[in-house]
Design goal:
Length: 262
């Protein structure tokens, strides 16, 4: 385990690297998770790449920091961590809110980015009313009060039926997150809108989405792809909102092909 104080709070991260010459892939996790969701995906990668995993503020073993905060704050944390590790260029793979963070890193420091993978995310996610209801619910009743509903958005009925032990584990991951950090990140998502930023992205972009994603459905992700010049779009079959857990081999194949393209 590794920790670094970035922008006033300690972030938990892991930098898996064998050589400074290996391409760097940064994995940005979703709301209510920690970076362990990426481990099944990394297990499917045979390439000689370096991986940076980290817990966003308010998630996992990272400190929550002062609230409220914004997607800009999350992006500044990642930029600060990249600077701390002296990483000059990387491919960003952002899942859900992680995709919003990736778009904001593009807005703030485009020179850091080689390519972007937008995974089950969009230029704008949800409505203000929806996020306000979620914030009120977790603040009053805790994350456990909505955990079963979230699991239905994250994973397909097939996952629920055949992988009950895994489902219980990921539900536990969700419910053990900081309520304050979760609510603050919900507010950050609520206030984020990259409708005018997405068309400015000039690095290669791949957008992927599970065919049964209940949080950012395929049509929403497709609408984001339409905003980004020359972006690629792929649908992962038999998958919900967390493909790095539910279909890691399919996700790995798509991302390996994309990163290895000239």
């Amino acid at each position: 385990m590794a920790f670094a104080k970035i922008n006033g709070q300690v972030l938990h991260y892991e930098f898996l690297t064998e050589s400074k010459d290996d391409p760097v892939v940064v994995l940005i996790n979703s709301l209510g998770t920690d970076f362990r969701i990426w481990l099944p995906f990394i297990d499917e990668i045979a390439e000689e790449w370096s991986f940076l995993l980290y817990d966003k503020r308010g998630h996992g073993l990272s400190e929550t920091g002062a609230t409220p905060y914004s997607i800009s704050d999350h992006a500044k944390d990642l930029i600060g961590l990249l600077d701390h590790l002296k990483i000059k260029k990387a491919t960003l793979v952002g899942l859900s809110v992680g995709g919003l963070v990736a778009q904001e890193v593009w807005r703030q420091r485009p020179a850091l980015i080689e390519k972007i993978v937008l995974c089950d995310t969009a230029h704008k996610i949800g409505t203000a009313d929806g996020w306000n209801q979620r914030i009120a619910g977790v603040t009053e009743k805790g994350i456990a009060s909505l955990a079963d509903g979230v699991m239905k958005l994250w994973f397909t009925p097939d996952f629920h039926a055949k992988r009950a032990d895994d489902l219980a584990g990921y539900k536990t991951m969700l419910t053990r997150q900081s309520v304050e950090g979760y609510a603050a990140t919900c507010a950050a998502i609520r206030d984020a809108d990259f409708t005018t930023v997405a068309p400015t992205i000039s690095v290669p972009v791949l957008a992927v989405v599970g065919d049964q994603d209940g949080s950012t459905p395929p049509d929403l992700v497709r609408s984001t792809v339409a905003l980004i010049p020359d972006a690629q779009f792929e649908i992962i079959e038999g998958c919900g909102h967390i493909p790095c857990v539910e279909q890691p081999a399919q996700l790995a194949e798509l991302i390996v092909d994309f990163i290895n393209e000239d």
